[in-house]
Write a structure and sequence with these properties.
The chain is mainly alpha-helical and 137 residues long. It is 55% helix and 10% strand. It contains 7 helices and 3 strands.
């Protein structure tokens, strides 16, 4: 689903999605108190798609707001975002087409390289290691 299609599909949810010029390299943020997702308007549509998915997961979990990259909530959300946005069969095909060119594979899958890297971190990893990596503090 494209970013535009996602925006249309979530109309009516009890969360507001807005674009803004966010500071300090922040791509997106969810504010649970006001139930608002902000996405930096300078991002590509691919990045906006990934950020919207990520922030909607924060909303679904009722996370308090923006957190640092090392928090348990943030790791959980990154893992879930990657699993939602990357289809294993499409990834296998893209890897055959582009060998190990991370940028081309991510572009083919319509995800950021960060989402692709997060997904790859779960491959060939036991469920206990995934849990340890993404869910433990």
């Amino acid at each position: 689903m494209t970013y535009g299609a996602m925006r249309r599909a979530i109309v009516g949810l009890p969360v507001t999605i807005s674009s803004a010029l966010l500071p300090n390299g922040l791509w997106g943020c969810y504010d649970n108190e006001n139930r608002v997702i902000l996405i930096d308007r300078r991002l590509t549509y691919t990045a906006k798609r990934c950020v919207l998915t990520h922030e909607l997961l924060h909303w679904r979990h009722g996370d308090a707001g923006c957190s640092n990259d090392r928090s348990k909530r943030e790791r959980r959300t990154r893992w879930q975002t990657a699993r939602l946005l990357i289809d294993p069969a499409e990834l296998a095909l893209a890897e055959r087409m582009y060998d190990d060119d991370l940028w081309s594979i991510a572009d083919e899958l319509n995800v950021t390289t960060q989402v692709l890297t997060d997904y790859r971190a779960t491959l060939n990893t036991s469920p206990n290691r995934i849990k340890e990596r993404f869910f433990n503090a």
